[in-house]
Amino acid sequence: MPLLEDSVGVEDLVLLEPLVQESLLKNLQIRYEKKEIYTYIGNVVISLNPYQQLPIYGPEFIAKYRDYTFYELKPHIYALANVAYQSLKDRDRDQCILITGESGAGKTEASKLVMSYVAAVCGKGEQVNSVKEQLLQSNPVLEAFGNAKTIRNNNSSRFGKYMDIEFDFKGSPLGGVITNYLLEKSRVVKQLKGERNFHIFYQLLAGADAQLLKALKLEQETSLYAYLNREMSRVDGMDDASNFRAVQSAMTVIGFSDEEIRQVLEVTALVLKLGNVELSDEFQANGIPASGIRDRQGVQEIGELVGLSSEELEKALCSRTVETAKEKVVTALNITQAQYARDALAKNIYSRLFNWIVYRINESIKVSTGEKKKVMGVLDIYGFEILQDNSFEQFVINYCNEKLQQVFIEMTLKEEQEEYKREGIPWTKVDYFDNSIICNLIEHNQRGILAMLDEECLRPGVVSDSTFLAKLNQLFSKHGHYESKVTQNAQRQYDHTMGLSCFRICHYAGKVMYNVTGFIDKNNDLLYRDLSQAMWKAQQPLLQSLFPEGDPKQVSLKRPPTAGSQFKNSVAILMKNLYSKNPNYIRCIKPNEHQQRGQFSSELVSSQALYLGLLENVRVRRAGYAYRQGYGPFLERYRMLSRSTWPHWKEGDRKGVEKIIEELSVASEEAAFGKTKIFIRSPKTLFYLEEQRRLRLQQLATLIQKIYRGWRCRTNYQLMRKSQILISSWFRGNMQKKRYGKIKASVLLIQAFVRGWKARKNYRKYFRSGAALTLAAFIYKSIAQKFLLGLRNSLPSTKVLDNKWPTAPYKYFNTANQELRQLFHQWKCKKFLDQLSPEQFEVLREKLFASELFKGKKASYPQSVPVQFRGDYIGLQGNPKLQKLKGGEEGPVLMAEIVKKVNRGNGKMSSRILLLTKGHVILTDAKKSQAKTVIGLDSVAGVSVTSLRDGLFCLHLTEMSSVGSKGDFLLISDHVVELLTKMYRAVLDATQRQLPVTVTEEFSVRFKERSVAVKVTQGPGGGRDSKLSCKKKGNHGLEVTVN
Ligand SMILES: Nc1ncnc2c1ncn2[C@@H]1O[C@H](COP(=O)(O)OP(=O)(O)O)[C@@H](O)[C@H]1O
Ligand SMILES: [Mg+2]
After folding, report:
1. What's the Cα-to-Cα distance from 650 to each of 620, 629, 638, 654, rounded to whole Å?
2. DSSP state of 285
3. What does the DSSP 8-state code read for residue 198?
4. Residue 13 CB-half CA count within 13 A
5. 780-785 long-range Cβ contacts below 8 angstroms, 24+ apart
6. What's the mean pLDDT in 593-614?
7. Quick one: which H or E segment has residue 189?
8. CB neighbours of 267 closer than 8 A, spacing ≥ 6?
């Protein structure tokens, strides 16, 4: 069922046709030659060691396998790691990855690939990265101390390793626990030809600088050390020096302190130096052989290195204290025993150091939090070993592999078939080899080989490897998987390969012959107490802590558990652990014995394929169903694929599952319904289901997201709305409150003003604020009073013409003062008028007219004012002669005086008497005393007068009058103002006409059909004397000068 068309052979052996051993081998070979080293049997990965770097690893491949499902890409360890990791994450099932195969088949490489894949795909972050780093860096450290070059593998793990990586619920690594199994410690003191000791020794010598070497008291040359094989100090393609630096930095990353690293290296150096302690044959005084140290220098240096007394060490190496209940007996060791003791010490120190390193790494990577963890276990344990000479180590190694095979059988073959039976699925049984009989042979608590071995070790009396063998022979004489010389002989078989001291076990992977020599010793794994006590006394804390039993206070006579039983127990724990997890298999196959690329040894692969049970695996797989799950979990996982089962289903799990399968129209042969589980035949169907689920989950996620987002927006909106309403209501309320407060304050203010104003108005009188006005008014009044009283007391004289008046004491009395003055003046005038007689009154009236006519016009006017108008200047009253001049004229004579008449022709003057009556002006020659000219006032048209002091005036007559024909009169009067005033009044009275009085210096005088232009000028005298001189100027001109 490979999805890739261009596949080489078949990628999954389940598809192999015909299914026989040959075709299986052929398929693997074709693929191997095309560098397709991985092949599936269902979900089991078969891996052939390519012995070359293939371009199928690294980040881009990891990324690819992470994104595709198991069958979509070429078979790969990454695919398996991905399935395991995803299943751990999604289905919450602890996983274990079981990597099996012979030494050099590629197990350790495979485990590293798994680890690197998981490290690359699991979570990120500072914390996670540091955990990952620690987990990954544990590898180089463990490899340096636990790996060695063997004939089969340049980097062979000489210990078994099981590592639990622990994850949190998100799938991020939290830490881990490493369990190590049975380090091949014999390698410390002895290696086969062509092999090496553990890497660390070579690395230390090659990589340490001179200073470190000196501190550790070492020389760089490996050949100087007895424990390092002199022929094989270098391995091709392995740089010990740079590896040493890598180990050191890895230790730092894991968390080893510098001090710890130093102590580890010191103990490592100690082992090397111990190998160089040469022992010599000696004899005690009584001739009993003893041993001694040949070269004290070495012991000395060891003493200095770890803080031990060299005598003590020497004693411990060469003698042994046997303690009985009563006494302590010290016996000397002969050279063989001493060498054995020395080597035992070296092996013990080294293996304990290795255990300590594992313990120390675990301290760093262990998970301290108590949170629920998911676990992925990776088991990389030494593979099945068949050597030339197989000893105790091979025995336990093979036992362990036997157990793993059992796990495989139990979990894949047996369990699977039994499950079909249980579930009532029609099934034709597939035969496979069940190895529990072999497991029993070895591990049975009472009758197993390991139990026998322990029994022999504990048994009092003479015990040896051969007594142990005899016991086995006796017990298993009839056992189908056990044989030895004795049992063969009993069955009359002849087998020249079988050694006398050997027994053979038919393992699932083939027959292996073990030599019992050393079994007892190795099982006892005893270290003389003298040695452990000596080590405990070391000042170096690490070394001391490696030998807790050396503490004299801790002395216990109880035997420590034997190596065999220890191993059995740890295997039992491991098995329990593995059974609790979901297994994922990587079965490593070694294509050739020579570590050669491209070489495919059919024979070798065939034998491995056989014992790995690959064919049976394929058969079961083909007949069976790739996947099964309880109805409950299945429904839970896929219920969203059907509308009927999502989101609620009430009719039972099985019905629900049937509904889903029906709706998805899965072919009927693809699914079978067991009693409690559904079985899916091909992975394709499962992947189809998974894909559908993935798509549906996306839809659902979108749906949930949609609803959630909607809900979030809605609640958010509602919250905002609520808040907005609340805020605006508060705001509005607050605004209104403020406004109300303002209005209220204003109203109160206005009220207060009004009230205040009212109150003040009402109470003004009571308040001092009015006092100022009252005072001011009072003061004003009193000042005015004072002023007026003062005025009364100091009134000026009542004479009308006295214009004196006191000035006001204050400016603001000015107007009043003026008015008062005016009043006073008027009052004076009135008083004055009141006391006047009518005649006097009349006089004043005349004066008033005079003022109207001449004031400001005529220069002689001011002189006339104080002079009384007498009217009669010629004494008319008492002179009847003159009275006659008046003629018959009724009424008084208003004015009588002597005037001068100017001759208009020559300017000569002649006196005339002038009388003014109510109707006439009468001019009479004074000498002739008879009337000469009478002029009716109605004939007078107007008067011209000069502005000067003179008395010249011209009487203009109307032309139509009788006198008019004589022309106008040019006269000079001494009282011209009085005369003209009286004339004006007489004209007014007589004719109701205002006589035009013209003040002028130039006027014309009519004179008999012609007129004379008179021009009056002021003479040099200024007219003071009012003397006139007239001069004729041409026919029509008369010039008058006033002197
Ligand atoms: N996938 C692989 N790619 C390249 N070389 C490999 C691969 N697997 C194994 N090898 C080679 O084979 C050698 C032995 O592998 P290893 O994993 O140490 O075997 P095992 O642990 O089974 O004894 C490695 O040192 C390496 O050179
Ligand atoms: Mg290995």
Report:
1. 36, 20, 15, 11
2. T
3. B
4. 32
5. 783/809, 783/810, 784/813
6. 89
7. none
8. 306, 349, 353, 540, 542, 543, 546
The closest ligand to the CA of 106 turns out to be: 1
Tokens found for residue 275: 């190998």
8 A C-beta contact, residue 861 and residue 951:
no
Ligand 1, atom 16: closest residue by C-alpha: 106
Q: CB within 8 A of 440, min separation 6: which ones?
A: 448
Residue carrying the six token digits 């001019």: 923
The C-alpha torsion from 1022 through 1024 and 1027 to 1031, rounded to 10°, is: 10
- pLDDT at position 204 over 90: yes
Alpha helices, H only, 459-524: 465-475, 485-490, 519-524
| Cα 711 from Cα 705, distance rounded (Å) | 10
- The phi, psi pair for 926, rounded to 5°, reads -60, -35
Ligand 1 lined by 111 (C-beta under 6 Å):
no
Q: Which residue has the higher pLDDT, 253 or 1006?
A: 253
> Which of 49, 107, 143 to probe ligand 1 with, by most ligand atoms within 8 A of CB?
49
Cα 206 to averaged position of ligand 2 atoms, centre (Å)? 23
Distance between Cα 831 and ligand 1 center (Å): 164
- Residues of the chain above pLDDT 70, percent: 96
Which ligand sits nearest to residue 385's alpha carbon?
Answer: 1
Q: Rounded CA gap, 859 and 1021, in Å?
A: 14
Report residue 964's pLDDT band, with 50, 70 and 90 as the boundaries. low
What is the CB neighbour count within 10 angstroms for residue 446?
7
Q: Which residue has its alpha carbon closest to ligand 1 atom 3?
A: 53
Instruction: Please identify, by atom number, the ligand 1 atom nearest to the C-alpha of residue 102.
Output: 22
Distance, CA 245 to ligand 1 centroid (Å)? Answer: 22
Name the β-bridge partners of 671: 680
Which among 37, 39, 13 is positioned nearest to 24, based on CA atoms?
A: 13
Contacts of 259 (CB under 8 A, 6+ apart): none
Q: Which tens digits make up the pLDDT trace of 708-754?
A: 999 999 999 999 999 999 999 999 999 999 999 999 999 999 998 89
Q: Output 211 or 407, whichever has higher pLDDT.
A: 211
pLDDT tier for residue 1024 given thresholds of 50, 70 and 90: low
Query: Which ligand 1 atom sits nearest the alpha carbon of residue 109?
Result: 17
- 313-372 per-position pLDDT tens digit: 999 999 988 877 778 888 888 999 899 999 999 999 999 999 999 999 999 999 877 777
Residue with token string 């001069």: 1031
**Parallel, antiparallel or unpaired: strands 374-380 and 95-100:** parallel
- Letter for the amino acid at 397? I
What is the pLDDT at residue 876? Answer: 78
Q: Count CB atoms within 10 A of the CB of residue 212.
A: 16
| Neighbour tally for 261: CB within 10 Å | 14
- Distance separating alpha carbons of residues 346 and 329, to the nearest angstrom: 25
Q: 16-72, pLDDT tens digit by residue? A: 878 889 999 999 999 999 999 999 988 899 999 999 999 999 999 999 999 887 777
Catalytic sites, residue numbers:
103-104, 108, 153, 156-157, 383, 385
Amino acid 492 reads R
Q: What is the pLDDT of residue 513?
A: 93
Q: Helix (H, G, I), strand (E, B), or coil: what is residue 762?
A: helix
Q: Nearest Cα to 261, choosing from 274, 269, 252?
A: 252
Average pLDDT value for residue range 894-904: 85
Examine the pLDDT at 508 and tell me if it is beyond 90. no
Mean pLDDT of the chain: 87
Inter-residue contact 626 to 687 (CB < 8 Å): no
Prediction pTM value:
0.64
Provide the pairing of β-strand 147-148 with 156-157.
antiparallel
Of 274, 281, 290, which is closest to residue 188 (Cα–Cα)?
Answer: 274
Q: How far is the CA of 569 from the centre of ligand 1 (A)?
A: 29
Q: Is the distance from the beta carbon of residue 155 to the nearest atom of ligand 1 less than 6 Å?
A: yes
